[in-house]
Amino acid sequence: MTYWELARPTYLENLPSGLLKLSMPTRFVRLTLEEAAALGSHITDWWEGFGLPFAARPLDGVAARLGRAMAKVKGPAWFVKLGSRSPKDSWSWAQAAGKAECAEQALGYLTDASERISDDLHLALCNNYRPALAARQWREMPPWSEFRVFIQDGSIAGISQYHHGRHYPGVAIHQPSIYGAIMDLHLAARDHYHLDQMVIDVFVEPTGPGDFKATLIEINPFCELTDPCLFDWREPFDGSFRIAGRRAA
Fold first, then answer.
1. CATH classification code of 143-248
2. For residue range 8-64, what is the model confidence (pLDDT) as tens digits?
3. Where do the CATH 3.30.470 domains begin and end in the chain?
């Protein structure tokens, strides 16, 4: 199976509605192939290969449609990405943690030297696929709160802290409750899983003393091009919940 065949079903716009309901509010703007190429032509440092230079391919129409989509999602700020990936390699995106206050700012993040967006637009165009912009409700996600869940045969095969470069004592203290919140999300989602194998990113937020709620962020292909975090693709997944600084069963 090609990477394209693995990746396309994980794009936000291709998720079942039952899974999207377990995520933050999102609206989509489906691009034409011409608009996808125009967006690519605006990407600083990566515009070559998308045809005409950016000056000849304005994005006013895309910005207007994106603005209308954003207005349908409760603000006052939004997180805008391709349905495939976010421009986390964009300097301006990183400075603002992806928080956009208008369509023009969001498009600026997407086109600020993001190789990730360039690659995904090329992949879509090569496969005659119309990509989508996802306008999402912006949510505060501190590094400790994000986790990566590995699904095999519809079951949890492992959970890893996403930002695992440092130890978060609060995560260790509340690990059983966090695990319970992730399991609750999995039980609510599993009837809507459209793939036997996938990698699900989630974040948890406190709802009371020692209580947490998990929310789906996005889905990734179950393959070696997806970061295994505290696991290793060369080893079997053992069902453990791994957090920075220690491994928990």
1. 3.30.470
2. 999 999 999 999 999 999 999 999 999 999 999 999 999 888 876 555 578 999 999
3. 143-248
